[in-house]
Amino acid sequence: MPEITQTAKGSTNEVTSREDEGKPSLEKLEITMDKRVDLAVALGIVFVGAFVLITARNIRVGSIPDPIGSRGLANITGSLLIIFGIALAVLRLISGSALPGNLVPNDGQLDEEGYPASTLRYFATALSALLWVWLMKPLGFIIVTPLFMLALILLMGTRSKIKLIAFPTLFSLVLWYAFSQPLHVILPLGPLTRIARSLGLTP
């Protein structure tokens, strides 16, 4: 009898463990994300899209007929931000209502080992992009773009001399030539304007 009882308990535990394997464990879900913050981010995207559309009204319309117009890119970008922001907000409301409280399972994955996420790196990248735009006219595309790419590569933790020097320089020169010569896009050259004009590379 004891052996039969022990066997029955063992089989019951096996069935219970198998059932538990099929059910999601709250400990494995890592419920650490606040649904209110996530919804606020989605609504913030909608706000940015609306701001882009409103600001685009101040862009001067060109005199040459154009189906897209000078406001086209801004209008398309603002509209897409609003559409996807609303869709994201609706999805967050639906998925968030499935669980009580304000915390929901985290959608993301753990950082890659040895390459943790960094708030400082994120803001430094955004600042570098703003500086690239701000310094484009006084320094010129050929000078400021390699510096911008160098900053990004350093932020990613790369220390190879080839990747830090050769790649940003060659990529910027090829990109400038492709846009300025075959496509005839005038990019600012800053102090290199006179040299480029003497070589017939820019008007």
Detailed description of the structure:
With 203 residues, this protein is mostly helical. The protein has two domains: 25-109, no CATH class; 115-203, no CATH class. Helices cover 66% and strands 3% of the residues. The chain has a two-stranded antiparallel ribbon. Helix 6 packs antiparallel against helix 7 (161-180). It starts with a helix and ends in a 5-residue tail after the last helix. Residues 2-29 have low confidence and may be disordered.
Secondary-structure blueprint:
Layout: H1 2-22, H2 26-29, E1 31-34, H3 35-56, H4 72-96, E2 103-105, H5 119-139, H6 141-155, H7 161-180, H8 193-198
Antiparallel strand pairs: 1-2
Neighbour order of strands in the largest sheet: 1-2
Q: Helix amount, in percent?
A: 55-70%
Uncertain spans: 2-29
In total, the number of domains comes to 2
Q: What overall geometry do the principal axes of the alpha carbons give?
A: flat
Q: What fraction strand?
A: under 5%
Distance between the termini: 100 Å
Using the CA coordinates, give the radius of gyration: 28 Å
Helices, by number, come to 8
Largest sheet: 2 strands, antiparallel
